[in-house]
Specification:
Distance between the termini: 32 Å
CATH topology: Purple Acid Phosphatase, chain A, domain 2
Radius of gyration: 13 Å
Structural class: alpha/beta
Order of helices and strands: EHEHEEEEE
CATH class: Alpha Beta
Pfam family, one: Metallophos_2
Strand order of the largest sheet: 3-2-1-6-7
Protein name: Phosphoesterase
Family: Belongs to the metallophosphoesterase superfamily. YfcE family.
Organism: Ornithinimicrobium tianjinense
Largest sheet: 5 strands, mixed
Length: about 110
């Protein structure tokens, strides 16, 4: 079995409108990741430029709710990392990490900030 790809999933960062910068814990995970998935909302392309500079690979996906979610329906895994900068009605700011090895999503972890 291969070690797999380390993924970081972010959403609803709103930098710099709601936060000046991403939390240090997020940047630490970004720098260790093989792939960073960002599900929007981002306010300025400068954050995407910085993510791209500090990550091995950046992929944008769609999101908006700020609500962490991990469920499976009829074999489809649905993940939402929440927001690392704006918790809205949630008790914590959050993001996700996981690995993909041999075509299987493993070690999905919700990080609370």
């Amino acid at each position: 079995m291969s070690q797999g790809l380390r993924l970081v999933m972010l959403a609803d960062t709103h930098v710099p409108a709601r936060a000046r910068q991403l939390p240090t814990e997020v940047w630490d995970e970004v720098e260790r990741a093989d792939v960073v998935l960002h599900a929007g909302d981002w306010v300025t392309p400068l954050l995407l430029d910085e993510l791209e500079a500090r990550s091995a690979r950046l992929v944008g996906v769609w999101g908006h709710s700020h609500i962490p979610w991990d469920t499976e329906h009829e074999g489809l895994r649905l993940l939402n990392p929440g927001s690392p900068t704006d918790r809205r009605r949630e008790p914590y700011r959050t993001f996700l990490t996981c690995t993909v090895a041999d075509g299987v999503l493993r070690d999905v972890t919700l990080h609370r900030l």
